[in-house]
Amino acid sequence: MRVGGRDTHAAWWSDDGVHYLDQRTIPATVTVGVARTVEDVAQAIEDMAVRGAPLIGVVAAYGLALAARRGDDLEVAFQRLLRTRPTAINLLRGLEAVRAVAPDPARMLEAARAHDRAEVAAAEAIGEHGLALLRCGSRVMTHCNAGWLAVQDWGTALAPIYRAARAGLAPFVYVSETRPRLQGARLTAWELGQEGIDHALIADGAAAHLLQRGQVDLVITGADRIARNGDAANKVGTYAKALAAKAHGIPFYIAAPLTTVDRATPTGADIPIEERSPDELLSAEGLDEAGEVRRVRLAPAGTPALNPAFDVTPHALITALITEVGVVPATGEGIAEAFQRAAGSPEAI
Amino acid sequence: MRVGGRDTHAAWWSDDGVHYLDQRTIPATVTVGVARTVEDVAQAIEDMAVRGAPLIGVVAAYGLALAARRGDDLEVAFQRLLRTRPTAINLLRGLEAVRAVAPDPARMLEAARAHDRAEVAAAEAIGEHGLALLRCGSRVMTHCNAGWLAVQDWGTALAPIYRAARAGLAPFVYVSETRPRLQGARLTAWELGQEGIDHALIADGAAAHLLQRGQVDLVITGADRIARNGDAANKVGTYAKALAAKAHGIPFYIAAPLTTVDRATPTGADIPIEERSPDELLSAEGLDEAGEVRRVRLAPAGTPALNPAFDVTPHALITALITEVGVVPATGEGIAEAFQRAAGSPEAI
Fold first, then answer.
1. Among B199, B303, B310, whose Cβ lies nearest the Cβ of A189?
2. Buried b / exposed e across A23-34, counting CB within 10 Å, b at 16+?
3. Which pLDDT score is estimated for B7?
4. A137, A173, A168: which is closest to A155 by C-alpha?
């Protein structure tokens, strides 16, 4: 994707470390962070300077390659990176891909690069398969950011939309702002603006109203972990949209690469849900009148808050999964079939 | 209710005009606004310096009495006040109560005071009837602010909670923050904090997750207009909670006085839904590190936004209505019965 006319990745390897667009400062400014140690990488993930399930898998993979080059204890590095965030299974996938060829640093770096390329290829294929679900002028609702900031180059939920826009289908996107971190308002609105795709920001609470009023043709979100039975954990607020879509007969899709599917997790109830700091909810950050970034407190001082970062959408509410091997039912059978297809394809992950 | 140890109303008449707590500055500061003309009153309602369906009815009633005392054209004043906000029917109720005794200024003021007293009495009765729905330690979820800032002295949705707290039942309240205006984070959290009632703030998108996980015993919200068939318009984000409550078998109640019921509106689809400025969504206001109130922009400059202020919950999702004449089914029959009971009672509105 292009930022200010230049082709840009969300994260990339360079000889001085792992580079990434700092997603905490977008849209105010686009700055590049550099993680030179495993601890730097871990903190960038924990602080959500890099975020998005596939992207944190890629960045963690590069982080483990970095550990190898620096001569760090690889198991310590692996565990440090793995415990940064509990919900997205892609984190484990990226780390495992690199550990599988340990301890040679060059081979580990190549494995990280291969994992990165595979995620890009998967996202591109998700875009192709998802494109078939869109019509001219389709009105798509999404939640959080599952665009190219979350997954190199294409994204997951937004990949079909980028494809559709380039195919001249003129999609329209309802962007749910996604409190408390506002990934919709800050990141998805910014991505779509950069690509010139028509969109409207909405409050998370307004999604059900728009679905009820027939203003949405389909919902597509990403996922952080999909259980073996098709239940999907994604950014908190997703489940409410799935319930409303079901109530009004509107298709609800989860777009995700197979690296997001965790066949070791039987159901959604078994997915660990990250609890983040109440501070995220008690305040918001943005630009003041003078263009300075400021954090303002919204609620009374000392207000207790609960901040679960994800929720689980039961598979019965998911019309289908959009994966790199095609659109498959969100069921145990559908997932098994997807992995069979992937095993039979030369680019299988 | 008490603020800083002093008994305080949300709005009151005084010889120099209509006084009100300015709800735009709470919790940062508690300031009293004074509306000395009909235009002042209208702007206080439009800007949401005063808000909450019953309260705007009361304030509009005083506004029309003010018009009479000033010798304004009463029909012009009536229409100006009526068009401040389209969804809450209480606005019309308050205005009609005062217009019914026009043009004598003293009688009109007395009618406004009577309307105010009747709303307080209704809210108190709602608290009594709603109390029967709570148990020791009940975990209640609410949305927006339907407390004493929205309805003199008691509130609607919060009235049973205030009663329960005084009865020693130790209720716990999940406060949905209610983007974009954050009435939950700013006002409900503040009210509950002042009363020492245990609560936790949550993102609007987290409500369905908590309902799914069995952390909530019942949901109670207010309403801005209830149609003849029991469909209820309330602050946007309410409908998603009702859907999730239904999905998990958790009771969902609407607490509202009969002034909120509009028997001239057949169904929820006939209730006008106010669209407010996109600016409310693109920014948030709070206190910076220095304790100064600041507005910060959250989304990229120029981001288009849609900002419906209300949504409609179909009556099939509403377990019951908590009214001043008792807990009644959210159906045409239930509503007809409630009005019959009210007609048979000496304090009928």
1. B303
2. bbebbbeeeebe
3. 79
4. A173
At which residue do the structure tokens 């190898």 appear? A68
Alpha carbons B268 and A113: distance in angstroms, whole number: 55
The answer for A 163-222 residues in CB contact with B (under 8 A) is 174, 176-180, 182, 185-186, 189-190, 193, 198-210, 212
What does A43-59 look like in DSSP terms, one character per residue?
HHHHTTSS-SHHHHHHH
Strands B252-255 and B232-235: unpaired
Model pTM?
Answer: 0.96
Q: What values do phi and psi take at A140, rounded to 5? A: -105, 135
Q: CB contacts < 8 Å between A and B, how many?
A: 231
Cβ contacts of B7 within 8 Å, gap of 6 or more: B1
The residue with greater pLDDT, A334 or B1, is A334
Long-range pairs, B284-291, Cβ under 8 A, ≥24:
B284/A284, B284/A286, B284/A296, B284/A298, B284/B180, B284/B182, B285/A296, B285/A298, B286/A283, B286/A284, B286/A296, B286/A297, B286/A298, B286/B28, B287/A296, B287/A297, B287/B28, B288/A288, B288/A294, B288/A295, B288/A296, B288/A297, B289/A294, B289/A295
Answer whether residue A4 shows pLDDT above 80.
no
Distance from CA of residue B5 to its chain's centroid? 24
Interface ipTM: 0.96
Is B306–A177 a contact, with Cβ atoms under 8 angstroms apart? no
CA B172 from chain centre, in angstroms, equals 20
C-beta separation of A47 from A145 below 8 A: no
Q: What's chain B's average pLDDT?
A: 96
CA-CA distances (angstroms) from residue B3 to A277, B7, B193, B236?
29, 6, 11, 28
- The pLDDT of B256-270, averaged and rounded, is 97
Nearest CB partner across the interface for B286, out of A185, A204, A298? A298
pLDDT of amino acid A349: 45
Tally Cβ neighbours within 10 Å of residue A71. Answer: 9
For all residues of chain A together, what is the average pLDDT? 96
- Interchain pair A189, B299: CB under 8 A: yes
- Residue B349: the pLDDT is 45
**Separation of alpha carbons A341 and A346, rounded Å:** 10
* Crossing angle of the two packed helices B105-131 and B159-166, in degrees rounded to 10: 60
DSSP, res B184: I
Residue positions of A annotated with a catalytic role: 224
pLDDT at B64: 98
For the segment B277-287, the average pLDDT, to the nearest whole number, is: 95
